DNA sequence: CGTATCCTGACC
DNA sequence: GGTCAGGATACG
């Protein structure tokens, strides 16, 4: 699941490939992508020059010379593939953009849950997002305030993009482990001191992921401490990592050293 | 607040 | 051949 570091990595790859280029041809190859990108929007896209690529939370924003913005979200399994217009289409290519220098960028997404939408000039169609989790200047007071207004568990609150934009299931669990906080603790019960520690832990896990090229590691030292490690020993205390469902998704944590 | 929905590969 | 996963949204 691409979270902030993976989306940041992908948007850098994309930026290098597309900024300054003009869209020659664009196709939506899957029903679910055609819903978000109907023919009239594909037509608007054609001939536009891409002037910049920005990231906000897990969204990628492609600024176009027309004033429109192409908004991309990878959801579960999306990623960019950059090749040339001469290449054969990838099996899971959902949106394919051919550029004037024969570069082709394809949104590859086996599950087809990615969203690509054209936001007309002036009307930003982003959902409400909190401060970007990668921003080192996030105000601890704002973060504490957001938590204090939520009665859901701290883990569920961290997944709410209005609290911090860019945190997902993996890094929420990892950050709670680093901060030694029980994921079941009510968000509004988190003390100021622990919230400050949690914010630092979020930055730490995101920075570390970013430094490993925005790619997940599945072996060796860089492996996750709790995510997808049910039954394995906690590296701090040896207790078996537990898995519980929260808001319909899996939370992994150490039931011994993560406290309420 | 919980639950269904979108999708399809992976797994039983 | 059925179930599950999961980010975000919609709905009860």
Structural class: alpha+beta
Helix content: 25-40%
SSE series:
HEHHEEEEEEEHHHHEE
Count of strand segments: 10
What percentage of amino acids are in beta strands? 15-25%
Spatial separation of the terminal alpha carbons: 27 Å
Mean pLDDT: 91
**Strands of the largest sheet, in order across it?**
1-6-7-5
Gross geometry: elongated
Number of helical segments with 4 or more residues: 7
Report low-confidence residues grouped into runs of 5 or more.
216-221
Question: Rg from C-alpha positions?
Answer: 20 Å
The profile of the biggest β sheet is: 4 strands, antiparallel
Polypeptide structure, described:
- The chain has 260 residues and is α+β, with helices and mostly antiparallel strands.
- The protein is 28% helix and 22% strand.
- The chain has seven helices and ten strands.
- It has helices at 4-18, 31-36, 39-45, 140-148, 154-159, 169-178, 192-211; strands spanning 23-28, 50-56, 59-64, 69-73, 79-84, 93-99, 103-108, 115-119, 242-246, 249-253.
- Strands 1-6-7-5 form a four-stranded antiparallel sheet. The protein has a four-stranded antiparallel sheet with strand order 2-3-4-8.
- A hairpin with a 2-residue loop joins strand 2 and strand 3.
- Helix 1 (4-18) packs across helix 7 (192-211) and helix 6 (169-178) packs across helix 7.
- The protein is elongated, with a radius of gyration of 20 Å.
- 37% of the residues are buried.
- Mean pLDDT is 91; it is low at 216-221.
- The protein binds a DNA duplex (12 and 12 nucleotides) through residues 1, 30, 32, 58, 73-77, 109-113, 115, 127, 151-152, 159, 161, 168-169, 247-250.
